[in-house]
Amino acid sequence: MWSDDKDGTGIGTPCLNFHATPVGGRLTLDGFSVHQAYTWWISDGTELQFWNPLVPKLLPQAVRFNIIHLKKTYNLCSNFNGLIASNWRVSPSLLKFWYLTAVEKALLYGAAVWGGALTEAQISKLHSIQRTFSLKLSRVYKTTPTNSLNILLGIPALLLVTKSLFIRFNIWKLDKFRGQNDPISLDFYRDINSISSDRKIIICADFTDYDYEVYNDESRIGDNVGFLVCIFERNLLLPIFCYKVNSFNSVFQAELAAVNFSVGWALERNVKIKVFSDSKSSIEAIRSPKVKSNFVLSVKDNRYNAKDLVSHVWVEAHAGNPGNELSDHFAKIASSCGADMSIPAPYSYVKRVCKEFLINEWNSYWQNSTTGKCTKEIRPSANRDLLISNKYVIYLLTNHGPFPAYLCRFKILNYPDCLCGEHGGVDHYLTSCMYTKDYHLLLPTGAARTR
């Protein structure tokens, strides 16, 4: 809920029942009087003003849903403020983690859908919401630039996070991502409700009567990812199969591709094989009935067709097993010299691309911002792992603190000079003031810093 105060940061306690009136209208009912209008921001861009704590029953379901969502959001805000104001000494890193995992998720619920059509007013409100949390977390002056707070706390602007979520959803929805040269085929999720139970749950049985031993292993060295399949017949090593996949593929996918190749090899020759793998995740993925990835499900389909021919067991890595050690050695070679194999890009790759997009957009946004010049000289780039929560350090990094120059700027003092007669800014107290000489810092040689 947003009050109509000028700064747009007033937060009230939302109620689920209101009478709606046109913007600028007034509603007077017998039995009570209304003194304050509240505006709800709806995800489709609509703004509704309410003057009375009663909602008409004909209010659209989508609007009622958004009201409930906002109620939860501001409950989180109240809880956050309560923790900040308490004497529990909650760790700032824990508060930041809570904000990123709970508060931000609630604020941006559904952003993948509505994040591509934000108006300037809605963007401003997003900044205002985030600024409330940033000020509470850092406990600094309210005039501190929002961009500087985002950089020092390691929290990207909600607008940029919204854009990242919107782009990620569209990439995954469209099933194509345009890389530097060619479109990249993406994996996708299938509806598993229509799949029979015996195909969902694959039992990786172990049997002793088999014709061949097969060892699979995968490797990633830098951007090179590959896998290898070693096949033994009565302790005699047959020709080795080495394959290289794309750099955006994961080692998990490479291991499943090795399993799929082994199963296909057994089906083609109608022979029994025992597959040894040091990847528990691939075995669990084949066994799990909840997997939705089309790539994994295709591997499970082949595994189901060869259920009487293939036994799949786990072996401990680097435990002295000769076959596993040999496959591990050649897997490193396969990652750079193997035959090319195309596998759809996983969802994790889309998330990684959008994360890089977020950082690049944040850096560009920070470099082009007109505020936070003092902070920009010290922190020219963004880093999500950074967290400076000490308010006195933030005073120095932003030049928004109890300094004469700052206080004079906001008409709190009449003169901007220090007691020693020089301009009372941050640089003065850190480098030249006679009263703080025991704490002076040395400026870089030849630096010409003016503020």
Automatic annotation (TrEMBL):
InterPro entries: RNaseH-like_sf, RNaseH_domain, RNaseH_sf. It holds the Pfam family RNase_H. It comes from the Eukaryota. GO terms for molecular function: nucleic acid binding; RNA-DNA hybrid ribonuclease activity. Residues 242-334 form the RNase H type-1 domain. Gene3D superfamilies: Ribonuclease H-like superfamily/Ribonuclease H. This is RNase H type-1 domain-containing protein. It comes from Araneus ventricosus.
